[in-house]
Amino acid sequence: MKRLSWSLALLLVTAHDARADDEVEIPMVPDQKTEVTVLPLVGGDSDIGFGGGALSSVARLDKAYRPYLWRVESIAVITFKSSPTGGLDIPYQEYFMKVTLPHLVKRRLRFELRPSFNWLATIKYYGLGNDSKFEPQPSDLQAPRYYEYGRINPALRSSLRVAMNHGVSFLVGAAYTQNWLEVPAESKLAEDMRNGSADVKSILGNARPHGVLQFEYGVIYDRRDNETSTKRGMFHQATVRLSPGGGGLFLPYQFGEANVTIRFFLPLGTPRVVFAARGVVDLLVGNVPFYELARFEDSNAIGGVNGVRGVPAQRYYGKAKVFGNLELRAEVFEFPVWNKAYKFGVVGFFDGGRLWADYKRRPELDGTGIGLKYGVGGGLRIQSGDSFVLRADVAWSPDARPIGAYFGAGQMF
Question: For the domain with range 8-409, which CATH number is right: 2.30.30.140, 3.50.50.60, 2.40.160.50, 3.30.160.250?
Fold first, then answer.
């Protein structure tokens, strides 16, 4: 199935200066102002259908509180697709709001709160491991959703970050997610759950409704010159997430996730040209919900908008993941719109990574050799004021059908 890319968006931006006075003739730079960005979205692809929504950011800027005093981000997206039976399906819905208070205690305590609701009806599953294959099925096995399953998951996540000295911070957080899963009886996932090997059935588990409660602990080293769009410095993070489930139907999963992410940013002769690099190691242990095997820290890993671009999202599933991203970012020019500064930039990138189904050697699932999954491509960046970046990327990969296209808010890392 060929993918049609997200590509059409309209950016509407307004800025309100809370201390401006229309009667003052001499322009003054205020100590505080509110920066508002609204982005209507139109697009989709052949997997999730076509639709639209809106992305917004409201930030309170203050010279004494960098990068901002507070920010509220939100997104609402819904898509539609014709049903194989002739009706109309809604394969994709995403709604979230993120409240960030980086100075709950000035320069010491950062607070984030993120309620969300996702309803994904066409999540992909092609099998476990780095060597899973996408193969058209014989006619007697062919089904419209053979490689798909659905998941509804409202969630609430919060975190506190306590800053120490010399860029070191400690992170604590908690999250709860409720999950309802729809696995068609004729799908590849249901087949593997019923008839896979003992190892495969043990890793996948079942698809009953359940909740997941997680506690997060981490340490951060942050020496970036700017949080919104970094030009120099580094940002490293090591976190552990623990789910104390394991009893009954309500919280059946007892598992842990360990993640180490390193990021470097280096200007190449001028602040307008920056080399950026990220490396990620993500490990899952215990009785893990099967849908987490394709993810790291609430996002897709080997594939998708925040992992290895070009590889389709949810293409590969496994407990151990290693991947990295290299970007060359260049600011091309600046321009004003309605007395607000914008920066236009371009990016070239290479992403690559690998995963393993489990911690035992399983060549039938993971193959042999390097098994690198990769994507190459480029993109555009528009920075609105001091608090918002819009990004659009296009990537090619041997796994792409035919290319991957991505649209979102903020730099990838």
Answer: 2.40.160.50
